[in-house]
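Instructor's aside before we start: the two examples that follow are unrelated to each other. I chose them only because their records fit on one page, so don't look for a connection. First example below.
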Amino acid sequence: MKKSLLCVALGAALVSNLGLATPASSAVTDNPYATAQELELMQGFPVPADKQVTKANALQTPPFNRWAYQHMRMFYPSAGIPAADKPVPLDKAIDSKFAASVKVANADGEMRSFDQFMTETWADAIVVIKGDKVIFEEYRNGMHSNQPHQMMSVTKSFGGLMAMMNIHDGRFSESQRVGDIVPELKSASAFGDATVGQVLDMTNSMDFREDYADPSSGIRTYGAVLGWTEKLQGVDYPTNLYAYLQTLQAQREHKHGDVFHYQTPKTDVVNWVNNRVTNQSFQEDMYNKLWSKLGTEGETYVLLDDNATLVAGGGLNATPANLARFATMMLNDGVFNGEQVVPKAIVEQLAAGGDRQAFANSPDASDNMPGNEWSYRAQWWVSHTPGYEAFTAIGIHGQWLYIDRERDVAIVKVSSAPESFTPRQERYDLNGLRAIVDYVSAN
């Protein structure tokens, strides 16, 4: 399945079309799974040119992303999300047999050890939760539990969750027209007469091409407006993200609600609705609703565009420890440390999923995520596969939050895979997550 994201445009356009990135081959070793340290990235004073991570190669150029995904705010503007006043550590009951017991089928169906699975999916960290306890954790490539990691489109799922919380609080409803909440979008037929629920579930109709090789395509224009890809000479670009969103129009072929289509600007509109009704930024809302109540600690931040505007489609950088706190809360019906952080009704809505027919009609349905077994709800991917029902937040290059309430298992996995997305890579990751669930639920 095509995981479209702003970050794809940034990396692919910069590398393939602008010629700004240092050639990846200059830092490649014979080991395709080499760590940043083994590659000698960013080592030395000065760092040799072929080992230098830069803004041009940080987002998607392998192998430089092996180092960059733990240091994103060194290259892009960012805003911090404060930690809670008092950290709340997660209980641990480490299963010493876990790593030796879990076996995973790769994309070819060959059984691999857990160690091989982690290596061959470029994993930087994994945390496995059973109930309210961490039963396994492992850190690679220089990661540790309190190291922020780029989460790509996992960011979308937090924005979607906060929208659901605002809806639950009565700030707006899913049936309201977006243009009635954000009047600036009334002239944008992709959003103005679409309902909040349709944009939230990405079933609103939008004419937006994600052709990274075409500098005039929607995704390239989007990146140029953000200041993250090159502007074409002679083109009059909108001056900021808000102005750009007002130019987007509906597709003639589809009506709102008919087809699920995963397109990043839709998340920016969800975020704009949230901002308008709360009068708070994404990072302020996330602190107030989630991070302040989850006993978080250390550093969390979001990336900004050149106008200091949050890019809601993929800018969150968070630590495995804080993501594990969040996952534990979602696994336990929204409760953490005795407090109802997220209403149980919202967790149940996410687990129930979205419109399966709209997903089946989608260009994003695939062999890995077939239309009759998956749906999309409030910026979360939902599996309805018997025995593997779960709702997941997914980001390119191997970022996963996997919540399986039926079997009481949650998994945080962060990675720095060389390619943004391939069906084989997705298949291997899904097999691994499900193999972990099988093992944990049986022991």
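Example two begins here.
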Amino acid sequence: MDILTAVITVITVISAHAGALLALWLRLRWQVRHARIQGRYLVRLVQMVAGHGQLEWGEEHGKAHRLTMTLTYAPRADTAP
């Protein structure tokens, strides 16, 4: 094996590992951003309902992430006609 072949092999292996690491980093970044957006949405939803209704929610983690919510809204007594 000559020097050129060895250099090309090393560069190829390093490039493949760097590409895989970049792909993992991008995926993790997307997941964190998605979780933050989902958390903000839930906080805003709970703030809207606070004191006027009841919110029940649950999460399932498995092959797919599932979030279920049940909102029971009761109108305020002081706004009734």
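The chain has one helix and two strands.
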